[in-house]
Amino acid sequence: MATRTTAMPEMAAEVPEAEPRAGRPGREPKGKEAVLAVLARAAEDEKFLAQLADNPAGALEEYYTLTPEEKAALASGDIKKIEGWVGKLDKRLATWLWCRLSQEKW
User: Fold this and answer.
1) How far, CA to CA in Å, does 75 sit from each of 7, 70, 80, 81?
2) What CA–CA distance (Å, rounded) separates 47 from 27?
3) Of the N and C termini of the chain, which has fewer Cβ atoms inside 10 Å?
4) Are the CB atoms for 64 and 57 separated by under 8 Å?
């Protein structure tokens, strides 16, 4: 699995590839890595960010390893819950969550 290191003042987070890898069973990130993959993709891909804003359930559909609880937290922008799972997010990875909260759609 290809990863990038995202420098943070107190730690470095391993962020999996932002794009899902459909058709490669067993290679999809799970749990923390899947959540970080969604956040990284949202920070880098404006089209995906817009899809998340318009239809979070549809945008997250291709991330089939996310649990219903993870999908709900991502869809609602629940920063507290997500940071409880993955640790403190840097500004880049928190992009989607702050966008979602500013929409007041929860």
Assistant:
1) 26, 8, 13, 12
2) 24
3) C
4) no
Residue type, 24: R
Alpha helices (runs of H) in 1-106, residue ranges in sequence order: 32-44, 46-54, 56-60, 68-76, 79-86, 95-103
Residues spanned by the domain of 30: 3-103
pLDDT digits (tens), the chain, 106 positions:
444 444 444 444 555 454 444 444 556 778 899 999 999 999 999 999 999 999 999 999 999 999 999 999 999 999 999 999 999 999 999 988 888 878 765 4
Compute the distance between CA of residue 35 and CA of residue 32 in angstroms, rounded to an integer: 5
- Give the whole-angstrom CA distance, residue 52 versus residue 50: 5
Rg (CA), the chain: 13
Measure the CA–CA gap between 23 and 1, rounded to whole angstroms: 15
pLDDT score, position 99: 81
